[in-house]
Every structure is written in C-alpha cells, then in structure tokens.
Amino acid sequence: MSTGNTKEKQISKAVIKRLPRYRRYLGELKRKGIEKISSKDLSELIGYTASQIRQDLNNFGGFGQQGYGYSVSLLYDEIGTILGLNKKYQIVIVGYGRLGQAMASYISNNESNFHIAGIFDVRQIIQDVEFKDAQIMTCGNLSGFVKNENIDIAVITVPAEKAQIVADTVCDAGIKGIWNFTAVDLDLPEDVVCENVHVSDSLHALAYYMKDR
C-alpha cells in the first residue's frame, strides 16, 4: 500500500516512537524465516496490545489482510519507508570523547543507511584518530565541511557548555537534523529537526520504576 499521502504532522509522536520497535521485531522475524504474523502474535512478541498495533498501522494504510495477518517482509519494508530509511544519510559526529566514539561504532556497525562522513573534536583528541573512511578534523573546519559535503545529520556529544555553539554552527551551515546527546535543550530554527537523548532522564525514570519494587 502507498504511504505517499500520509502527512507526518497528523501522526502523533507516540506512534512514530513505536514504529522503530515494530521494525526491529519484524527484522528478527525475517531473519528467522517467518513470512507472516497476526497482530495478536505481534502483540505477544512486542508487548503492545493487538488493538494498539492495528491502530498505529492504520495511520499509514493498515498493510494487513483479514484472515492472513501481516506479511513480515512487506511490513518491515513499509515501516522503513515511513521512517525515511529508504535513503542514505550523511552524518558528522561532533565531540569524539568516549560517548562520541561509542556512537560512531554503533552507527557504523548497525545502521547501514547512515554514513559517518566526518568526525570533529579538539586537536589533542583527534590527532591520532582513524575511523574507517571518515575525515577527522578540528571543529574549525565543521561549517565548511557540512556545506561542502551536503551533510544531513549532526550527532552532538560535546560538553554541555559547547552544545549550543556547535548547534548554531551546523544549523548555519545547512544541517537539517540533530541527534543531541548533551544535557542541553537546544534553541534551533524551526526547519531543523532535533532528537534529544537525555541519558540522565532515562536513568532517573528507571529509578522511579524500581523504587517501590
């Protein structure tokens, strides 16, 4: 089914947050050679109700057939298209301490649609760095590189006090997406999308769920 008429602004953020989880489980089913699955079986696997799954997918056309369920391969591909994973993205990582190194390794080894084109940090850190085919540079070269290489996404893992400066630099250079791992809520232009990963927020939420058990 076509997803071309779906307007993302009409879909709730909660639904979008669930789609990668659906795709991840469908990918595991594909690897096991499973060709179809019902919403009930998918519910037992993922943990959402069957009704919730059907409701989420119906936002984009449904994809299931009554009495058959979902084609695992088709649904995996369709969700990938909805998420924008049918194209390649060029990435820079700004901040190459331990977190930046961990994210570079994760992206390179697990996310084939995302290519790390450049890594930026202060000279003392990057002078001995090599990472596959990525260019390694100091932050003074960041703006020009983003412009010249048509970079799509900046992964920001710098100290909090440097985060807004880096964000301003990449936004002025034309970046359209930021994956923000700093503890700062960035002030960004309206046309720049930002996904914030606040590690401490997640850890503190875990503590809350554990406290009465």
The gist of it:
It contains 9 helices and 8 strands. With 213 residues, it is α/β, with parallel strands linked by helices.
Secondary-structure map with pairings?
Elements: H1 13-31, E1 36-37, H2 39-46, H3 50-58, E2 70-71, H4 72-82, E3 89-94, H5 98-110, E4 114-121, H6 123-126, E5 135-138, H7 142-148, E6 153-156, H8 160-172, E7 177-180, E8 193-196, H9 199-210
Parallel strand pairs: 3-4, 3-6, 4-5, 6-7, 7-8
Antiparallel strand pairs: 1-2
Describe the protein in words.
- Residues 1-9 have low confidence and may be disordered.
- The chain is 45% helix and 16% strand.
- By secondary structure, it is α/β, with parallel strands linked by helices.
Distance between the termini: 45 Å
Structural class: alpha/beta
Strand count, sense and barrel status of the largest sheet are:
6 strands, parallel
Count, helices: 9
- The value of Rg in angstroms is 20 Å
Kindly report the average pLDDT value.
Answer: 91
Shape: globular
Helix content percent band: 40-55%
Main sheet: which strands, in order across?
5-4-3-6-7-8
Residues in β-strands, percent: 15-25%
User: SSE order, as H and E?
Assistant: HEHHEHEHEHEHEHEEH
- Per DSSP E runs of 2 or more residues, the count of β-strands stands at 8
The residue ranges in which pLDDT falls below 50 over 5 or more consecutive positions are: 1-9
Throw out a few tags for this protein.
213 residues; alpha/beta; six-stranded parallel sheet; two-stranded antiparallel ribbon; 9 helices; 45% helix
